[in-house]
UniProtKB/TrEMBL annotation:
Organism (species): Roseburia inulinivorans
Protein name as annotated: Intercellular adhesion protein R
DNA-binding annotation, residue ranges on this chain: 24-43
One GO molecular-function entry: DNA binding
Limits of the HTH tetR-type domain: 1-61
Alphabetical UniProt keywords: DNA-binding
Amino acid sequence: METKELILKKALDMFAKSGYDSVSIRDIAKAVNIKESSIYYHFKNKQDILDSLVEKFESHMKELTDMLQASMSDSHNVNAFSWDWLREFYFEQYLFDTFCNQMMRFMMIEQFHNENMRMLYERYLFELPHKIQTQSFMMLSKLGILSEQQAIKVSNDFFASITMLTFKYLLNGKLTKTKKEAFSEETFTYINRMFQED
């Protein structure tokens, strides 16, 4: 891993545990095992590290959202929305992704101290996931699998459930394989139950 990426990784490790203000350039340099002056070769200051992390996260989210939109663009393709699709795009590349998970934890801490981070927290933990989930279930309505009313109800119920499970398993303590498996199992059990009720 290149030094610049290692600086970002170690900084995020610490930011996600202790918050931005509790971590110094000296702490980051020590974690990377380089001199403090070496950090300034790659970044202007600590704020530049934060800005780079946010830019990287937003770039990842745009790429992921674009892939999701492309997979949903064919309204006649019933395979475009599947549990494999949900697991691959929404779980593996977002919720279970180490970088994304740490950014979510960091945003949770910083929302109380930094207005920009609060807006990111609201956008990426609530607004964007709800929008994507609603679009996904509305696609099932277009395919005739659910009525529009059912799609809206299932989407809202699913969003509430998956948000609760995200906080219970993925943003609570260390992210482990066991927690990911429990999250997946409870999520798919809940989804199956929702469709059986409808």
